[in-house]
Amino acid sequence: MPTEGMVHALNRAHSLLAPGGRLVDLHPSVETARVEADGVSIGNLDAEQADRRHAAAEAALARALDEGLFAVEGEREFWFWTYGDSIEELRDHVCASWQRSRVGDPLIARARDAVRADRGTVLRIAEHVRITRLRPVDRR
Amino acid sequence: MTIRRDPEGLEVLALDAMLPNLVGRRVLEVGCGDGRLTRRYARRAGWVHAIDPDPSSIAALVADPPEGNVTARAAGFLDDNLDLPEPVFDAIIFSWSL
Predict the structure, then answer these.
(1) pTM exceeds 0.90 for this model
(2) Which of A38, A53, B57, B94 is the most exposed place for a label (fewest CB within 10 A)?
(3) Cα–chain-centroid distance for residue A118?
(4) Is the ipTM beyond the 0.90 threshold?
């Protein structure tokens, strides 16, 4: 959904909120998702399309605020971690479930090296997520 | 073979911080996917209407919704014929859907 569609969605949400209602938006920040081995980054996913989409979401929210549609009441960031038993499992999960990212071959090789060096290595994908609470502004 | 998504529960903790009082509230969740997040907060809400444009993503939630207060349906938020059970909601959650 390009920025225009996202702004349309924000307008629709505004119209569907009851008095006192709130919109909460969660989406990955523009920081690219990465693979971690024992909590240390070993490289980013190939995620050019995903990064563009996340930037578009940021732009849409900024526009909704600029246009006086919503006001920010609260915001925080957190890490969303997805664990797998192997890099192949994580790769297949991304391939099946994510539309705009992939685990590239160089990253797979680095993960295999890490596991070869220590069979107990914990592999996970790290996504940085922003959550925002938005109050609809009365536009009368 | 087990993929484990957010076993720490940081996502629902963040949601709780943003919507601390869901009791009795009417919630619309947009982009619920398989209901990963829905299942973690729905019990506390009054009721939840969850939608996702991808029928294969939402199939698991449609087939096995959390007890009682969740309706789930494959639909896009911007669909012209989006038929919502209520005209207004106390909370709308854009769940990784913008």
Answers:
(1) yes
(2) A38
(3) 29
(4) yes
In B, minimum Cα distance to A24 occurs at B93
Q: Is A95 exposed, middle or buried (0-12, 13-18, 19+ CB in 10 A)?
A: exposed
- The domain ranges of chain A are 3-136
pLDDT digits (tens, 9 = 90+) for A29-73: 888 899 999 999 999 998 888 888 888 999 999 999 999 999 999
Q: What is the CATH number of domain B21-79+86-93?
A: 3.40.50.150
**Contact indicator for A10, A135 with CB cutoff of 8 Å:** no
H helix intervals, A1-140: 3-16, 48-66, 87-97, 105-117
To the nearest whole angstrom, how far is the Cα of B93 from the nearest Cα of chain A?
Answer: 5
CB contact under 8 A, B98 and A1: yes
Structure tokens at A49: 């399309």
For the cut 90, the answer to whether the pLDDT of residue B6 exceeds it is yes
Nearest to A16 among B4, B11, B92 (CB): B92
Q: What is the pLDDT of residues B40-63, one digit of tens each?
A: 999 999 999 999 999 999 999 999
Shortest Cα–Cα distance, A15 to chain B (Å): 8
